[in-house]
Structure formats: C-alpha cells, structure tokens
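Deliverable D5.2: sample structural annotation.
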Amino acid sequence: MFSIGTLSRRTGVKIPTIRYYEDMGLLPEPERTAGNQRRYSQAGLDRLGFIKHARDLGFTIEAIRALIELHEHPDHSCATANAIANAQLSDVQAKIARLKRLETELQRIATHCDGSGTAGDCYVLTSLADHSLCETAH
C-alpha cells in the first residue's frame, strides 16, 4: 500500500492533483487507515500513471474517463479508443499549425525592428497596435 506522498513521488503528480482526480472519479476512492490517511494499491498507482501519461499527451479529463472505461473492459472494441486518439492527434496538429503561423508572424515583426529607434517608431509596437499590418491570420 502506498501513501499519497509516495504516489506523488513515483508518478510526478502533485498531491492536490491526485485529490482532484479522486474527486473527478478518475481514481477510485483509496482505502483509509485508522488515522484517515489514504492508502493506494498497486492498481491505484498504475491508474495514476495511466492518467498522467494521457494528460502529458494532452487528453482531456472527459477523454481520459472514456479511455479508463475502455481499459477496464478489455473485451470491448478499441474503435472508441482509436477515435479518441485520432481526435487528440487532430487537435495537436491544429495547434502546431497555429503555432507555425504565430512563429512566422512574430519572426516577420521582430526582423522589421532592429531595436535602435524609439518606442514611438518601433515596428513591434506599431504591429501590435494595428492587427491589419499582420501578413498571416493567427
């Protein structure tokens, strides 16, 4: 059996976050000692590792809840898990595309200013004040 501190150290998940996952129903209610301290089994540690990995990959709480449900029923089809993973991949790809547009625009703005003028003539400040000067939608 593991304390909440041990779970935190082993997974890198902060204690308040572990409690939050319990409150959200992602982690089962742990056993309690006579002193009311939480005690987690290996299954709890494994579940928290699953949740952390999913969060690191950007999955939402709702998606993780669905993935846990599927994980608990190994006889079910994995089509839903695959659909959830593909939706997350699409979201990540859209974010990357947006970040690339931001990079392009910031690069353009930054290279138009050498920093030697005054704030009143600064291209960075002028660009931020007038969105129509941007070359890309971002």
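Annotation notes: The chain has a mean pLDDT of 91. Helices lie at 4-11, 15-23, 42-56, 61-71, 79-111, 123-129.
The annotation will be released with the project's public dataset once the embargo ends.
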